[in-house]
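User: Quick one: structure for sequence A, then sequence B.

Assistant: Sequence A:
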Amino acid sequence: MTISPGLTIAFPESLPVSARREAIMAALQQHQVIIVCGETGSGKTTQLPKIALAMGRGACNAKPGEKPRLIGHTQPRRIAASSVAKRIAQELNTPLGEVVGYKVRFADRLQKGASVKLMTDGILLAETQSDPLLKAYDTLIIDEAHERSLNIDFLLGYIKEILPRRPDLKVVVTSATIDADRFAQHFASAKGNAPVLLVSGRLFPVEIRYRPFEESKETDLNTAIADAVDELWRNPQDSGDILVFLPGEREIREASDHLRKHLSHSPVLRSTEVLPLMARLSQAEQDRVFDNHQGRRIVLATNVAETSLTVPGIRYVIDSGTARVKRYSYRNKVEQLLVEPISQAAANQRAGRCGRVANGICIRLYDEKDLISRPPFTDPEILRSSLAGVILRMHALHLGDVERFPFLEAPRPKAIADGYQLLNELDAVDDANQLTATGKSLARLPLDPRIGRILLEAHQRGALNEALVIASALSVQDVRDRPLDNQAQADQQQAKFDDEKSEFVSTLKLWQWLHDARGGHSMLPSARQQQAATQRSHTNLAHLPVVQRAALAMEAAQRKLEQKAQDAPVKNPANQTLSTHAASAATITPHAADHATHKLSNRQYENLLRQHFINVRRVREWRDIHSQLQTVASEQGWQHNAQPASYEQLHKSLIAGLLGNIGCKNDEQDWYLGARGIKFYRHPGAHLRKKPGRWVVCAELVETTRLFGRAIATIEPQWLEEVGGHLLRKQLLDPHWEKKAGKVVALERATLYGMVVYNNRKVDFDRIDPVAAREIFIRQALVGEDWESALPFLAANRKMVHHVEELEHKSRRQDVLVDDELIYAFYDAHIPQDVSSAHQLEKWWRSASKGNPKLLHISRDELMRHEAAGITTSQFPKTVRLGGIDCRATYLHRPGDAKDGLTVDVPLFALNQVNEERTEWLVPGMLREKIQALLKSLPQRPRSRFVPLPESAERLSTQLQNQLGFAHGGLTGALLKAVRDQTGLDVKHSDFKPDMLPAHLFMNVRVVDEHGRQLGMGRHLAALKAELGSQARGAFQALAVLKTVPPQNAESKNKDAATADPAGRKDAESPMNQGNSASDRAKTAAASVPDLPEGLRYTVWSFGELPELMEIHRGRQTLIGFPALIDQGDAVTIELFDEPEIAASKHRVGLRRLFALQVKDALKYLEKHLPDFQKMAAAYLPLGTAETLKQQVVSVALDRAFLADPLPTDAASFARRVEEGRGRLSLIAQEVARQAGGILTEFAIASRKVKDSKFAPDAVTDITQQLQRLVPRDFLLQTTWTQLHHLPRYLKAMTLRLEKYRSDPARDAAKMAELKPLEQRYWRLLAERKGQKDVRLEEFRWLLEELRVSFFAQELRTPQPVSVKRLEKVWQQLVQ
């Protein structure tokens, strides 16, 4: 068929569509839109444009005077558009571009006067902006419409909109797997639905085989593919290539490795070529798939080969049944690339890739039931994509609301909402979804909204040059290749482009290198050199403009090259010139001045790129897009920035378009918290030399195996506030009064999509809510007394309030002082409404108080509800006398507080002299309440005698103070006697339950040092003494400084006294006078005897008479001290103690040392001639050394020989005691040694018995603890001489107990059950007393040991009857 001169159209009769061309022509003649459905391989793609030409459509058929129009033919992919155009041109026997051409992104092969234009659907969609009615076309063929991409759906809706205004426009919608009814209904007109024409048949049939497999350790997808290959190529005569569909690149790599290994075992198939086919391949690698070849070939492809493409030589298809589908997550607001089962239509498309050169076979690695259960068609992209770009474009084209746009399948409301949300994020629409000024500017840009927003912001911030480069880079695949077999080499070559903080800067460095390399000077330093230069530099390069950073790195490399040139002769002057030029390049735009001698040729340049594994074709695309974006910028009248942009300028521009891709790093794990709570990770292929910072921005978030952020850069959080302020959600928290600032402030918290940008930022609250700020100011600053000012009314009012509060605390009533609301009402009524800060109040008061000096003063009557009767100084004194010291007393009524009630500050040096009985009485004003609480704790019978309790407590309080006097003896003892006298009942001390009393009825003792600092506080005086007693003793001794005075006739009394002073002083003391009583003696000593010396060491009694106690005066305070001799090893000293018990204990040890110094020779003899000492020492080894045992024996012998009561108090009595004890010391020492030997012998027997008795774990544990208590390391010193005689019997009882255990373990357990409660009571009481024992408690302790003998070794007998009942009685007397 000849249409125009030189153009002949032939329709191959072998194609099924050729047989239907007349019907197609007729339908297209009668209708504006027709739907053509046919199997894959039926010839629709190539023959439909020829049918349109045959109908007289297209530019070559235009009549004279008519405007030539095109036949537009869309394809979903660029490679399909170009390959289909070539095939149609070949069939028409015309050069490509003359009649049939194509226009795709970055390529236009269409000559003027051409009739058929192949293009991607995106190209046609872009033309709607410049040609809204598409008047350049008289026919549109929408091929592969089943893919339902976003562009296709928008085109179909747009075409439907313009069809009434373009009645001459013919539209053909076609695909092999199309939902014909849906498309027919969409294009319905007055004549009804659009006609549907079916084209049945194909060139060669395809056999479908199902080979499902189950994942296991032995079988996986790769083994299933290998089995399918073996099945298809089982017969050596079966030739033809195999196309394998896999979901992604990772699966392709794994399958490729597995197939190569599998085929290597077959001599016939080992030469098979295995090739990948995917979108990220370089042009050369893609061309290999379509080139002619010899031998067998397996092509592993993603769904890029599913439609439009015809891979040469494919006879067989292996379909894995899955694909990686881009799906928008409405929850995470990100694009996900998930592996999903394909639809039935996609499965048919894959099967249609074979059977085009011969009969085909398609093996599906899933069963037929699985296929039937899948959806018929793939979800349209509009249902799984963000609609922001579509919404923006519709606004710009005035097509109305997206909700009412005639889409083939309307998007979900959620998708529309997300689209508007993205536009709001970009500040393109306001809250009413109307375009803002930014949105109108974005609508004029034929760009993705995010990219457009980046460029708009970059233009305003002076970073347009850099943003154009990055925006164009984001629009293409990464130009850096990582071939499967050369990944390590690629990473090494490309490391020089990596940056420390930003992958966007890495992109700029790469762009700079590409420009410089073209000029012949590609001397960007290596990654190691850049890092070393950064470390040597003191300048923080991260804050310099990004291009200057690259220039500095190149200058460093140039200096290194120049240094090398000086060391060696330059053989190639051209190289030196190239290096000089590389150092001078400091901008990403081409230089006007080029110092290079020549530029690289195209071949040299491409070889250089391939050496660095940079895709040449993508570099061209990158430059083309950059050129197009520059054109767009020029059309908008934007000026390029004259100075390089800084890091901050550039990344603020990027943030403007990527606010939804911000992330904040988790403190503990290696993931980032993104918008709306999503978590994402840094992409493993990130081009960064260091880990990114805490806050990052990503070019995109893509979910594969996990959610990854690609193209990451470190940012500062304060930039978000500047760029994304319209998205920040701000909260005001905790408005409060700031004393230092003198105003009410609130803590502001700002979040961006749930991420905290800043927190606790202080803002002036009076600017936001002046009324609430004024109320807070009055309540917290004035009523709450949290403001320091010189205004007189503040000090006066606070003093008055504190006075009334003291009355409340003493009376323990909260109804004396008026509440805060009344005080607030007073200030509120007098302070103007516009005063809400300290500065405003001071300014107003100074002006208003000139005529009223008492302005804002509150009177006492206004603060008190009623008079507080009975609150006098005598009832609630300001000081309490404890330990001879007047201590400050404070009162607090705050139940639950540690200081609730009466708190007395006791100086540390007086702590040990505080009498616990005095603390029971508190103060007179609190005595009645405490007596009432104690009466209330009595059992019912005696308590009933005192009803009503308040009156009885008042009477008893008066009685005790009148008869005994306040604080005379113990309160509980005095009250017990009064209760017994009045009731006649045998009320016991234990009937009072102090633990039932509230805490404020116990005196709270606060121990302070000399500077008033608190050292301890509590209501248990014994616990305080146990905790701070040693410190108190030291403080007391530091206060009681002892000084000596020479005694009368010192020279005649003791010439050896001179040796007692290491300084060589010969002064000594005179004996102290004694009085009739302890206090008299103390007073007499203080009045007539000089103080004792401090620090003198004595080896003889040369210090006169040692008084029993002494008075120490500190101002008007008087302390009582108790002197004692202190053992210093080779001498004794005199120290003063604040407790008689401690003084007596220390004095016995010191006196023992003084006696020992008098009998040195005798002691040396005794130590060498102790009977059976070696045997004793061997038995003592588990406890300590022989020397320790010897010292204990000698010490006990000295105590027995010299320290009998009464102890000597002067030199004469001391000398007599020395003479009396010297003669019997040897006999006593032998007696002590024999006693110790007997104890240690029994101890050794018991220890061996315990070690051998593994059959009785409970008994062994109990006996082990008993052994540790009875025989510690210093048992001879710790145990009294009387009890030492009983120790062998106790130890023997342990041995007998273990011997009896085998015969009756139940009896042993029963006796233990009776004994344990008694022991637990004893140890609990001892712990409460902080280890302090008295005579009765010590007696009870030895009764427990006797009870053990009675229980477990009755044959050893006890010195007195013991039983559980007797011990219970003793315990009751003990705790009374």
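Sequence B:
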Amino acid sequence: MKGVDSSTANEDGMQNKPIITCAGDWNLFCTLEAPLVAAIPQDSCEWRRSFGRITKFVYLEASFIKYNKDKVQPELNLLKRPILHIYWTDCVDIEYYKTTLREDIEIWFKQLEKNNVSDWMIVLVETYDIRKTNKLLPRTTVLDKVKGDFAIKQTEDRFISVINPIKSEARSAESWRALVAKLRHLVLVSYNKALNKFEEYMREQREKRNDPEWDYCKYFILQEQLAFVLEMLGLYEEALVQYDELDALFSQFVLNSNVTESPKWLDTFKQQITSWQAIRLTTTVPMHLRELIIKQKASLLDFRSYLFQRQSAMLLLTEKPEEVASRCISTVHNTLVELSLLGAPSIDGASACWAHLACVETLRVCEACTDMQAPLLHNAKDKLHELGKLCGLLPGSPEPTSEQLHLVVMLSAGMGDTETNNNSPTVRLKEALCSSTSFQQYYLELAELAMGTYKHIGRLRFARQIGRDLAAFYSELGETSKAVVFLVDALRSYEEQGWHELAAQTRLELVAAAKKMNDFDRYTTLSAKIASTAELEILVRNFFFEEMMKSIKQNLTDKDSVQTDLSDCFRLITSTLLPSERGYITENKVQCKLVFESVLPKDVVCTKATICIDPCEVEKTPVKNKTDLGIQASPKKSSDDVSSFSSSIRLDDLKPKNPLLDPMQFTSKLHFKEDKSLQKATIECHNPKMILKRSDSTKYRKPVPQVKSNCEFYLTCTDFIIKPGLNEVLFECIPTKCGVFKLGVISLLVEGKIDFISDVLSSKMGFEVITQGVSVYLNKVEPKKDLVAGLEHDMELVVTNGCSRMDENTTIHLKASSGLHLRYGVNSLLSRELTIPVEASEPFHTTKIPLRLFAVLLPKREKSIEHTVWLTCPWLESIMEVPLHFSPPMIAAWRLLTSNTRKFVHVTLKSTVGHLIHLVLTEPKLDCDGNITVSNLNPKAHDDMKISSDGTTASFMWELLKDPLVKAGPMKATFTIQYRLEDEKVSRTFTCPIDIQDCTTLFVIRTKLEPGKGSDFCRASQVCCLHLSVQRVNETEYTSLMYEVLADQTMWAVLGRTAGVISMDSSTGEPQNVTLDVMPLMAGYLPLPTVRLSKYIAANTKDPKKDISAHPRLEPFGPGQVYHAGKTKQVHVLAPAPKEHLDIVV
């Protein structure tokens, strides 16, 4: 068979080939046997199987024997029965055929039919003679005669003629290839028939498995024949299926025997186990074990060894050594379980020897399968440890007893004496059982190799488990320092992966090792950690708490403090920087509140607790100093660089983010061919480097313990008691230096000897410390009230020392802008400049200096008055500027009123101050320049008038007395009034200038509405006459006027022109009359249409040099120059008259 070792089988195995018998001319066949045997396996052949099974291409070999009619094998023996029968002849003489050969072939056929053989073939070997090629061919050949005599339907292809390749190699190639191909085909056809019959019989036997007389061993040998045939044909996977079915069937019987009555044949495997030799994983069949199964003398270990060897042989032939290793683990486990279920008697350690040898032997054939080597080494190590315990070879064990020495002899005898290789598993195990030194060396070799392999394939948990076993082994050897290394690695892995129970047990082992080594520092810290382990019982925790306190008093008295991780005994909950009233400034207290949980079972004294303050470099952006009223005048640093700092954090903020929880960005993508047809669909990851990266050992490396850095200052708290549960501690410090700082590590010094140090709190938690200089404020005593010009206000100059001390003889110089006066002291005078002394004081002291401030009220109509105060201080390099905003106490509004030719001045006062004030007004007065006098129309006898900023106003009126016929020019007047607050006695003067332009009445307009012709009343929807009269009452140069009738379109409809130009003759004073037709649109009292009069300036058509436009234009009259006498008139318009009714006569 191709792919299988075709060498001669050794004494421990057998080799199977299809058997083909040869009848007829045996000497002839012997000349052709060698080339025929060599030609059959040279090429593959298609095997079409029945029942819709998959077609296979197989390679065949053949074993030819001489036909013997007396030796006929049964059909159920697939290995020894011939699969094909061939009759060989070289007869070319028809007469000889008729007289002799025909009868011999007939006898051969009868013998085959007697034995129900239907797979045969007749081969006629011809010798090519070149001398006969020119002669005529005979009409009938011997092959034709044979076909005619013996051929039946569908058997013509079994008669073949071939040219002897020995005598004519060149001419025989084609016929020889046809013979070999036909031979392969007929062999496979014969096997197909035979296997179908065999499988049917095998199924019948399997269905009888519940019969009392059924025997599994016989059935095993029966089904194994099918496996042998499939293996012989190169179908190793199908052969493996047969062995797997036998394995599953046997395991099911064993499991069922534990709950039901076991069959009789199972007693065979309950016999005494006397041999536990190593399994040899080769492709040959271990005949000595197979013979034991056939004779029903095989023990459970013999049977399992044979079955696993055959399964491994099939897997090795299919190049699957990794599955051999995987099956070895399950086979060893299942076999040990079956031994306990069946109760097969054996000496102690026999099963462990067998399991160890099986694992080590499997390692030999699976050297390239690194992933599967580690479990095999682990299992081999465990079994070796079990043997060492039985034989008294473990470290710390007393000298082996006679019983143990006898056990070693018995175990060595059961492993056999057939090994000649000194490095074989059997020899190594025997040497290990002979002495403690060899055992320890072999055990350490297996354990370290297993641990290293586990680490290499990334299975760290198993590696740590083996490390704990090695720690126990080294502890018994007395090498405690080596044991501690493995225990520390295991503890770190358990803590990182959340195996709290295992971590607690490992700490107990570590603390025992530390005590054994007199490592009091580690013993004390481990005792504290164990006392804080919630997974342990409270009695154990209390015991180690007392051990910690005892070790502190007895062993650490003369030593410095021992540093350990704060999370061992304490859990941080929150950390909060408390806000300061003055901010974080130098020489001012900074406080931080820390809330943590103590998991220690009892109270402890914290001698000193600190939080390290680490400086960090932050670039400062200079900001221009600006000072306003109530704004600090000292320089201020920008806070943009520290805006990302947080003043409070929680424990969850300290946990590092798990990168495995980041979402993977997957997208689907379709790939198309050139013809736009779909080629494939793929899923692509956009961030594979972030997720799919090599998992190395960096996450399991020993972390660098935190140490106190050389901080410039600390937040401290001393001498307080830490109780179990939540604790709240207030840390304080006074910074002496400016800068940006962040909180670093936390240190809790317990009992003066154990220093618990945490990781850095957070890079985002910090604060900025600044130096606060002397600050100057100019504040209002009543901040909610506005500053009012013309009234005195109480102010105060506030001086805050900040971090500095105020010296004696310090003065502040104040200078006000023009119109603003200051007063310091009660009896002093108002002035623009003041020099104010400041008393000596301590840092952070505030001095308030009272001032009085008065802004002169100017005769201006402004809603806001701006002033400035300049402060000159010895601690400021530049002069500080303080802008002040004043509002007037009230504002005055005046109007010029006209009645025909009479003129009146109306003045209204209103307070616009933002806050509520009440002003008392006295002595209103209007003074006019020139020869114009005024007549006071205000009441003579009245109380003082009051106005308030809530909207209360005061009005005054005067009539201008002048000659009505004389045109007056521009006039200036001044309105004055005395005002004071209600609670004051001193009055001040309010002045408002008044400028009057063109106040003389030039024209008077009168309007009159009359009903239309034939009507006595004005009715809606009827045309009426509007009489317009314009009269000049004073001399004017404007004689051309334009009138415009502006009527409300909802009340009036003007018929015809609504505007026109009239000329006023300066020589006469007669009025100009204009009549217009209008129609009222509604009934009621309607106001007359409004008439607008404008100056009409004609176009310049004569002298273009004059500054007159070439187009006519209009100019409005000034206020008071045109008086509308009928502006407020209303006319009564009646409803439309009803229509007359008509009488209809029929």
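The radius of gyration is 63 Å. The first strand starts at residue 19 and ends at 24.

User: Thanks, that's what I needed.
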